[in-house]
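Ticket #4471: structure export looks truncated?
Reporter: QA, pipeline team
Priority: medium

Steps to reproduce: submit the single chain below to the structure queue and open the exported record.
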Amino acid sequence: MSDEKLVGVVLVSHSAAVAASVAELAKGLAGGAIAVPVATAGGTEGGGLGTSAELISAAAASVDRGVGVAVLTDLGSAVLTVKALIAEGDELPDGARLVDAPFVEGAVAAVVTAATGADLDAVEAAATEAYSYRKA
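Actual output as written to the record:
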């Protein structure tokens, strides 16, 4: 499976600990999904709370296997930072896409779906569908 090109997933949070924990949860619920390239961009370079364009760009580059990168974010300024990077045109890999999905549930759905070898459209659809998960 290591030769298979899988969609990469980037989890952008204002907190490095939150991003890492969500990545751990998503990979764990995907049966380990070791082959799925997942990277986090949490907080700032100095370890504080916030969003870093540089960390997001590096994370996206690290998971790019040439078949697309799904980028999920937690809060407003993370969304704005990713949108700005996409608008720049050369800051993120070709095929990087901001996915409008809930952060935790969407991350799990994205990683589980990417683990099946699905394409970026299917990964995005699964993550977006997480908005409809009912809890009561």
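Status: closed, not a bug. The export was complete when the record was re-opened. Leaving a note from the reviewer for reference: The chain has a mean pLDDT of 93.
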